[in-house]
Every structure is written in C-alpha cells, then in structure tokens.
C-alpha cells in the first residue's frame, strides 16, 4: 500500500507478481491499494491492479468511500474516466452521508475561480461533471441524507456560476427540495443573486410559490432581506402575497417588521397586498410599523391605503395603545387625528388608551387624548365601565367618579404635579379644577372630593 501511495509502479508489480500480495487487502481505514492509488492519482498502478489482477473497483473504506469518490474529489479526471468508462465503477454509489461521486466533484470548489485539474491542465471541474452525467449516467438529481442534490449543494455554498451550469447545461431539477423544503430558488434568493433568480424563474419556470416546511416562500425571504430587485422580479410572476408562514407572517408583515419601505410600497401599491392581514399574535402591518416607530410607513398604510387603525391583537391592544406604550406622541396624534382611532376601545385588561397613558404617567399624551375622549365619550361613562371592569369597584360607585362630558366645559390643562393632572373647567356655571383620572380608585371618593371650586 505504501508503494501504491508513493507511485512506485515497479515495487507494486514486484510485490504482487513475485510475492502474491493481496490486491484487495485493507488497512485500518478500510482502504485498499487500489483506493489509495485512485486517491493519489496514480493511473498506471490502477491499470495494473484492475486490468491484470482484478482489484475490486467498488470496494468501500470505513467511510463508505470508493476509489471513484476519491478520484472525483481530487479532480483526477483521467482516473474518473478510466474507472467509470472502461472498468464500470458505480457512478451513483453513495457514502455514509448519502453523497454521490457527483457531489464530491462539486466539492472541489467555486467554479468562478475555474480550478485546474491535476493531470489535464485545460480541463475544469465542469468537464468532469459533464463526463459523469452525460457519458456515465450519474444521477444529477440524486439526494444525500439531508435531501441535498448537487444543485441544492451548489446554491447553498454560493457557487452561482455552477448553479447556472447545472441548470442550463445539464437540466438539473430546479424545484426539487431538501429536508427543510427549501428549493434552489429560495437558496439563490437568500444569496441575493438577481441574475440567477431571473434564469430560474424565466427560463426554467421555478415555482415561485413553493414553501419551506415552516411556510416561508421565496418572496418572504427577499422581503426580510430587503432585496427590492428580487421582490419586484418575483412579483411579476403571479406570486401569492397572501401566503403566511407558520407564525402567520406575510411578505408585507416581514417587510414592515424590517422597515423596508420600498418593498412595502411595491407589495401594497402594485401587488395589492392586504394591509390588514394579522399574524398568529393578531398583529397587523400597521402595528409592526408602530413597533418600529416608523411614522412614514404608518402614514402610507393609514393615509393612502386606509389600514384599519382599530384592529385589536390577541391581547385586545390597538395600534394606538402600542404607540402610547412606546410614548410616541407623533404617532399617537396621527392615529387619532388622521386615522380616527377609537380612544374608547378596551384591551383584555379593560384598559383604554387614556388609562394606559395615565398608568405610565405620560402627561403630554394625556393632554393630546383628552379632546378626543371628551368628543367621543358617551353618557354611559365608558371610563367608569373600564375601571369597574378592571377592578372590584361596583359600577354605581365607579360611575359617581365621573361627570358627563356634556356637563363639563374643559378650559385648559393645569399642571398640578399629580399623575393624571387637572383641568380648569366650568361646571354648572362654577369654575372648577377637575382631575382627569382619580389617582386612587380604592378611596371611593365623591365628586366633591375631587373638584375644587
């Protein structure tokens, strides 16, 4: 075996012919002299061992590798041709990982660099692949244990020139999927190669609506990454903008969550994406824009496309409530003025937008909301209902804490230093300082306790 490894033909012949050395004997790794010679590229020794002494060409070492595997992996094209064409070595045999000889050849590297083979200086790895597929019948769509084909492997490793070669020249299946459900289109989209995406979609009719096991599509991947060019290309191929992944996220939801304005505009303006679609948590694109603090996106969704500002998520929260939690006065003002957000909606904790602002001590936002509360509050005393619902206070007591807005003329806000603040008001022809919200709902205070004439 040492002689086969070093290429000493005369010693190999002497040991076999004169001393009857076993050509199929294996070392501790399971390798034979034939395997080692194929690995090192000694074709003369291979011809001797196989042609004259019948060495087993398909024997595997401990890693399930054959001589053909090693020759292909090391770029020994003359040996590949000899073993597969002249001797009949199995070109579709697989190792422990399920990889084929073809995959080993791909592992040689990035074909953009055009690596040169050892014994044939003018031949590239592509030539070896052509021989294996076109002449020797290697299965170009064979999968390894992870569901990878040669094409998927090349796309995963970013060998875009090789992807085009396999698809354009050898007809590799562009819609085959790995164990995660990922197609070559998805992998190329993830790599951001617009030209290859165009080839796959326009020339080879790659399925643009194929889904990963988690429900993701190529469009979602591009939207997440902010790749406007690929999103536009996919959008012209009848892409399904309503598709949701396992989290209930659409491409628009992902674009909004990542703040990709151009993609948001394209999806909504040109593809008609649903601006009110909700994910599994009940969140809409508008809510995600609020979460990102993107007033520009909010103006687009609400002002131009009338996104529903009063949609509630699974916790009952609205976009307005979320804006208040983030203390975004500008967003809050826009939602109530331009979006006509309902300030009286209650979340599942029984809180309205105003109560949330009060609880957090956001006095500027309280001042902002007050005219809208006064304009919309009805004589049913919604605020009282909210407190009664959120606490154990009886409704009749909670109601006594509030004066009907129709009876109170708020004149101006007085900064009194308390959480709720006070308003200078006119009630029953008397000047009064009226607390906006009671700081202590357990005191059972009366109206007289809370109004200072």
TrEMBL record:
The keyword Repeat applies. Gene3D superfamilies: Ankyrin repeat-containing domain. ANK repeats lie at residues 29-62, 146-179, 214-246, 247-280. Keywords: ANK repeat, Repeat. InterPro entries: Ankyrin_rpt, Ankyrin_rpt-contain_sf, Dendritic_Spine_Reg/Scaffold. PROSITE patterns: ANK_REP_REGION (PS50297), ANK_REPEAT (PS50088). Signal peptide: none annotated. This is Unnamed protein product.
């Amino acid at each position: 075996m040492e002689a086969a490894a070093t290429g000493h033909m005369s010693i190999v012949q002497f040991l076999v012919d004169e001393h009857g050395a076993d050509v199929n004997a294996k070392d501790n790794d399971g390798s034979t002299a034939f395997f080692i010679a194929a690995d090192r590229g000694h074709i003369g020794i291979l011809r001797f061992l196989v042609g004259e002494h019948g060495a087993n060409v398909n024997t595997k070492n401990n890693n399930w590798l054959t001589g053909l595997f090693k020759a292909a992996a090391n770029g020994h094209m003359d040996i590949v041709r000899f073993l597969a064409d002249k001797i009949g070595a199995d070109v579709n045999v697989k190792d422990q990982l399920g990889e084929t000889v073809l995959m080993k050849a791909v592992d040689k590297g990035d074909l953009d660099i055009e690596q040169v083979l050892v014994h044939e200086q003018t031949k590239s790895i592509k030539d070896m692949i052509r021989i294996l597929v076109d002449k020797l019948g290697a299965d170009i769509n064979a999968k390894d244990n992870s569901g990878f084909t040669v094409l998927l492997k090349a796309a995963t490793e970013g060998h875009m020139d090789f992807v085009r070669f396999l698809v354009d020249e050898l007809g590799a299946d562009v819609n085959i999927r790995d164990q995660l459900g990922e197609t070559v289109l998805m992998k190329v989209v993830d790599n951001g190669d617009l030209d290859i995406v165009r080839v796959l979609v326009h020339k080879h009719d790659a399925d643009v609506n194929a889904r990963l096991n988690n429900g993701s599509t190529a469009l979602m991947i591009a939207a997440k990454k902010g790749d406007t060019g690929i999103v536009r290309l996919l959008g012209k191929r009848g892409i399904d903008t309503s598709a949701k992944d396992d989290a209930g996220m659409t491409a628009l939801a992902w674009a909004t969550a990542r703040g990709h304005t151009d993609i948001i505009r394209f999806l909504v303006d040109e593809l008609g994406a649903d601006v009110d679609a909700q994910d599994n948590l009940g969140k809409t694109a508008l809510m995600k824009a609020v979460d990102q603090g993107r007033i520009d996106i909010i103006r687009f969704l609400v002002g131009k496309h009338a996104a529903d500002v009063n949609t509630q998520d699974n916790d009952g929260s609205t976009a307005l409530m979320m804006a208040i939690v983030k203390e975004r006065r500008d967003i809050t003002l826009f939602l109530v003025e331009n979006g006509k957000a309902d300030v009286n909606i209650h979340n599942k904790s029984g809180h309205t937008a105003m109560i949330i602002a009060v609880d957090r001590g956001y006095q500027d936002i309280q001042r902002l909301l007050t005219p809208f509360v006064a304009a919309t509050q009805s004589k049913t005393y919604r605020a009282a209902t909210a407190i009664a619902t959120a606490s154990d206070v009886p409704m009749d007591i909670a109601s006594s804490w509030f004066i009907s807005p129709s009876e109170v003329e708020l004149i101006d806000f007085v900064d009194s230093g308390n959480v709720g603040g006070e308003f200078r008001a006119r009630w029953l022809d008397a000047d009064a300082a009226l607390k906006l919200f009671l700081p202590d709902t357990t005191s059972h205070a009366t109206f007289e306790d809370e109004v200072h004439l």
